[in-house]
Amino acid sequence: CPRRSPATTSRPGRAPPCPALPRCPRPCPASSSPVACFSFVLPSITVVTWNVGTAMPPNDVTSLLHLNTGETNDVDMIAIGLQEVNSKINKRLKDALFTDQWSELFMDVLSPFHFILVSTVRMQGVILLVFAKYYHLPFLQDIQTDCTRTGLGGYWGNKGGVSVRLSIFGHMVCFLNCHLPAHLEKAEQRKEDFATILHMQQFEGPVANGILDHDLVFWFGDLNFRIESLDICFVKYAIDSNVLSQLWEKDQLNIAKSTWPVLRGFQEGPLNFPPTFKFDVGTNKYDSSAKKRKPAWTDRILWKIKPTSKGLATGGHQPSQGVLSVSQLCYCSHMEYTVSDHKPVAAIFAVQFASKVDKPLVEIYVADEWSRPEQAVVRYKMAVGFHRSSWDWIGLYRVGFRHPKDYVSYVWARSDDGERCLEKQLCAQVMFSEEALPKGNGEYILGYYSNTSSSIAGVTEPFQISLPRSEEGSSSTDSSGSSSEEDDSTLVLLAPKSRSPSPGKMKRHRSRSPSLAKFQGLILRPSSRDRGASRSPSPQSRRSLPRNIPAIHLPQEGLGHHGVKSKELGQAAESSEGSLFYQTVQEQGGLRRVSADSSLARADPRNLGLLPALRLEMIDQALGRRRESADQGYYPCQRMSPTRLAGCNTSPKEGNSP
């Protein structure tokens, strides 16, 4: 088979940054279809499960993720399932405003290895994160998530399951992370809860609506199955004597796989590692408390292959043909982690697909180096059947970015000639403005973000940007930086259905964490990375807003309900500048005049494009009242929030700021 070509990449002739694939068992036939060869092998998928017991993250997880084995280049995807992440009220509120510490940790560790967060889902203390190498992103489509509560009769999410499903090279794969009921006598309850999760979780689309409808299912988590019949003394003796096989036949999950119809077809590797529960925290010693719980393999990783693959992948891809195969390369626990009473478990799989979709939905063409602003031209071509949107955009990412919203800058994929280019299979063209380009030297990647599928549909290989740092540019940067630092901890409430490409971005302190599914109307800065060692900063550290906030007039033509784009954006993209312009308002003798020369007129649309016009009107009115109050001897508020503008006209005797 040919090497994995960055059909994602746009510059032919350059080798992709990935290892060579294993040889095909038989020659690949010549074909003009997107399915390039038989028996495509994705080198490996790593699955990790860990009940963290509400603990804080450790300092290092490289060994858990098998990143220090010298085989990192062979890993293409990593799925991480966590259970019992601290979900107390104060912690959940903080995690709603900021990315939780565990997710931050894994993104920090994996991004230097070119892993990008593809999707994440959380249900109270149950979290699932799926990562992939950046050059695989265009082939990961139809990404959906779901969750099912089973605690307290289905009303509480301390128990249950969360899932991420996606199409990988045209094959439907589902990752399911579960936390099932505890205790030895609850085996039947575990079976019922698992059946409920399988029944309740349904996905949209023409194929693979249920979990078991997928070509491949990975089921893992704290499944809480115990060892029956044997007393604790014999169990510990078998562990100390390394005769674990004497415990296998009494393991509840092993028994259930042969007796429960719901588990038919699920496979698991041999349990050649000691039971992973229950340990004294901070040690490798089994439970020494008064309860003296019997050791058990509660943390498990299983997989199931659909007997026949007849599903069609999204985007017009061809159906899966033949039967895929899975080989487990590693199945082990990690005794070196002692922050929880559970030991984490990891498994590595080699997945052999029957066929491979190797043509991306969008191909991007770019020069090898941008040394002058006029070279920042991007040409892209959309595949037949691609569902484009006027809200699609092309992001510029620094090599080592962490998730699709972690871009340096972006331009809209212009909509005026998009349909014509798609119909006639022509290349469309956009251009980054000089102000949007990063100064200095560095390696960057371009990615086409599809608003319809909420995923990256095409990427390039890394290329160089070498732009000089001008004195004017650096001074303006310093100036903007100082103003940004003045309010860099501000919480801004936004419209819940914002059409902006990135609801989690700011200009100076870029949010390096993806927006939460249930909190898409929040923008925060800075990220927890920028605040120091703590990964979960307190919102109490926010400082005040700047005194002078300009009013912003958004273009009216071409706006959607919450849209911010207009024909001016297309015209700006036509120009040599290629930037997005916004209007600021300055006061002169009581009159307002629009100025396009102000530096704020070229402000980053990530800062401006999300706010609804009504909210900006309220801020402007509040500023007017604020100035009048100052003239009358009142003190202005020390802090303004869009949700508390009415309280900003207070005197010193009337109380503190909201």
Automatic annotation (TrEMBL):
Domain of life: Eukaryota
Predominant location: cytoplasm
Gene Ontology MF term list: inositol-polyphosphate 5-phosphatase activity; phosphatidylinositol-3,4,5-trisphosphate 5-phosphatase activity; phosphatidylinositol-4,5-bisphosphate 5-phosphatase activity; SH3 domain binding
SUPFAM superfamilies cross-referenced by the UniProt entry: DNase I-like (SSF56219)
Biased composition (Low complexity): 473-483, 534-547
Matches recorded under Pfam families: Exo_endo_phos2, SKICH
GO biological process, one term: phosphatidylinositol dephosphorylation
Any one annotated GO CC term: cytoplasm
Family annotation (CDD domains): INPP5c_INPP5J-like
InterPro entries referenced in this protein's UniProt entry, alphabetically: Endo/exonu/phosph_ase_sf (IPR036691), IP5 (IPR046985), IPPc (IPR000300), SKICH (IPR041611)
Enzyme Commission identifier(s): 3.1.3.36, 3.1.3.56
Keywords: Cytoplasm, Hydrolase, Methylation, Phosphoprotein, Repeat, SH3-binding
Region (Disordered) location: 466-562, 626-658
Every Inositol polyphosphate-related phosphatase domain range: 44-358
Family: Belongs to the inositol 1,4,5-trisphosphate 5-phosphatase type II family.
Job description of the protein: Inositol 5-phosphatase, which converts inositol 1,4,5-trisphosphate to inositol 1,4-bisphosphate. Also converts phosphatidylinositol 4,5-bisphosphate to phosphatidylinositol 4-phosphate and inositol 1,3,4,5-tetrakisphosphate to inositol 1,3,4-trisphosphate in vitro. May be involved in modulation of the function of inositol and phosphatidylinositol polyphosphate-binding proteins that are present at membranes ruffles.
Protein name per UniProt: Phosphatidylinositol 4,5-bisphosphate 5-phosphatase A
Gene source species: Hippolais icterina (icterine warbler)
Gene encoding the protein: Inpp5j
